[in-house]
Structure formats: C-alpha cells, structure tokens
Amino acid sequence: MERLVGKYCKIVTKEPGEDRASVVTGILEDVDYKDGFILVDSDQGLGCLRINTIVAIKPGRKRPEQKDIEKDEKGFVGIGTLIVFIAMILIAAVAASVLITTSEHLQRRAQSVGLNTIREVSSGLVIDDIVGYTNAEKTRIEYIAFQVRPRAGSQDFDMELLTLTLLYDELYVTKFDPTLLQTVNLDNKSVFFTPNETGSSTWLINLTNTTTFATLSMHDYDDSIVKTYGMNDGDRALLIVNATALIPSQNGLGTRKTISGEVRSETGAGGIYEITTPAVYSERVVDLW
Predict the structure, then answer these.
(1) What pLDDT, on a 0 to 100 scale, did the predictor assign at position 187?
(2) What strands lie across the sheet with 37-42, from one edge to the other?
(3) Could you give the CA distance from residue 250 to residue 246 in angstroms, rounded to a whole number?
(4) Residue 39: which pLDDT band, with cuts at 50, 70 and 90?
(5) Prediction pTM value
(6) What is the mean pLDDT of residues 212-222?
(7) How many CB atoms lie within 10 A of CB 271?
(8) 3-state secondary structure labels for all residues of the chain
(9) What does the alpha-carbon distance between residue 280 and residue 129 come to, in Å, rounded to a whole number?
(10) CA distance 273 to 289
(11) Distance from the Cα of residue 44 to its chain's centroid
(12) Bridging pattern class, strands 45-50 and 37-42
C-alpha cells in the first residue's frame, strides 16, 4: 500500500458481520501498520479506515469536481441592472417608433411633392397665337384674341379659375365669365363678330369689360368647354380681351406699344407672353405673336 500513498484510490471495505461491502474514494494519505489504519482524504473529509476491513484498493483518476450551484452559488441580478435593461428596451422601442413614423411621414410627403411637381411641370396652358382687331381707321387695337390650349400631358382644368393678365401702364387681371362663352362661327361670321347667342345682334366682344374676357370654343370634341367649362387634352379656345376698356387713356393699344402678361390655369405653368405692336396697322386683323 505504500506505493499507493498520495494517489487517488477506490477502497473497498467490509466490516466484520456485514454482508455488503462499502466503497470509499479519495487520496490515500498515509498507512499506519502499527495501529492498523490508513488515512484517506475523501469527499467527506479526512478519515481513517482499519486495515483489516479493507477488501481491495484500486488506484484510479480523480473525477472532475462538480459544483453544486444550488448549494454553493446563487445567481443574482441587481435591481439596477434590471432597470438599465428595461430602460434600454424602452429607448429602443421609442426610437423604432419615431423612425417608423418619420419614415412614413417622409414617404407620404415625398409622394405628394412628386405628384405636385409632375402636375406643375406637365400641366398648364400654352399660347399658340395672339391677334389684334383694330378700329375702322386702323389707328389702334380695340380687341386682342389669345389662342390657347393645354400643355402636352396636362391634366384637365376648370376654366372658371382661368385668369388672363395684361401689363401696360398698370396690371390688369381679367377672368372667365360663363355668360361670355360661345362656339366659334356660331353664325358663320368672324370671331370678333360672334354673337352672344344664335340670331342675336349683340356681339360677344361688346359685353367684355375690364374684369372679364370672352371665350370662344375653337376645338372641343366632347363639348367640355361649353357644357362643363372644362378644358382637356386637344381642346383649343380663343380668349378675347377688351383693350379699349383696359387702356382707356389711349382708347386701345396704339402702334409701337409693348404689353406683357400671362394666361394661367388653377395649377401648372402659365402661358407667358410679351408683344410689341407694329409701326403701322395695314389690316384690321393684326398678327401680334
């Protein structure tokens, strides 16, 4: 047994009178032949076994020590750590909510801005031609007609919200008047002699004033201009302003005069113009654009 001193051993003992043997495992510390004991350091602590009760001793390897968590150690989470953890979760939830709400708001705004930008760029009116109608002496222009149409790809717009501005010595703003709306060549006459209704002797232009212009439907396949005051793709119209009423100081627009302004719908780009009248009016109908 001296050769086993200091080694981890499995010791089988059997007390006299007992039927079953018992096993003790541990490090064999010492052998005392004089007193008949061996000293063993086991899991239960340091103890002695009588030599005459030993049946067998078998050396072996010590098993890894297993820690009893419930017995030796206790898990502990401090209240401060718990509060910090909950705060981190709440902060993350609030930040996520703010980011989601902000992104949704920005997306709606971007879509709205995009649609409005497309509408502003592609919608509006184009001025195709401008002509003037002089007095009998051909000394001044009494009426000015603007031929307009929607821009390519323009959305439909309400002519009741249409405005025509004229800048000369002052800025004049004229608007659409549904009572001054007719179809061109209602009685097969010149546009400047279009009656206010079939068979009437009153010309439409004579009813214009400083705040309204007359409207003549030139091309309106679905009659949207006449029926609903709406202008859509392919429509064309003449807007006639009374220059005599707008420029009373000269009783009209004389030669070598410059006027400017625009025709603007509710949305989209307006039709901008600037014209200078010729030095001589050779005809009563004068091409100005």
Answers:
(1) 63
(2) 45-50, 37-42, 22-32, 8-13, 54-59
(3) 10
(4) confident
(5) 0.59
(6) 89
(7) 20
(8) CHHHCCCEEEEEECCCCCCCCEEEEEEEEEEECCCCEEEEEECCEEEEEEHHHEEEEEECCCCCCCCCHHHHCCCCCCHHHHHHHHHHHHHHHHHHHHHHHHHHHHHHHHHHHHHHHHHHHHCEEEEEEEEEEECCCCCCEEEEEEEEEECCCCCCEEHHHCEEEEECCCEEEEEEEEEEEEECCCCCCCHHHCECCCCCCCECHHHCCCCEEEEEEEECCCCHHHHHCEECCCCEEEEEEEHHHHCCCCCCECCCCEEEEEEECCCCECEEEEEECCCCCCCCEEECC
(9) 20
(10) 9
(11) 76
(12) antiparallel
Domains and CATH numbers, the chain: 2-62 (2.30.30.100), 124-287 (no CATH)
**Which amino acid is located at 114 in the chain?**
G
Percent of the chain with pLDDT over 90: 27
User: Dihedral (C-alpha) 205, 207, 210, 211: value to the nearest 10 degrees?
Assistant: -110
The type of residue at 125 is L
Q: What is the mean pLDDT of residues 89-107?
A: 88
Q: Given pLDDT bands bounded at 50, 70 and 90, which one contains residue 242?
A: very high
What's residue 76's pLDDT?
Answer: 55
Give the per-residue pLDDT at 120: 65
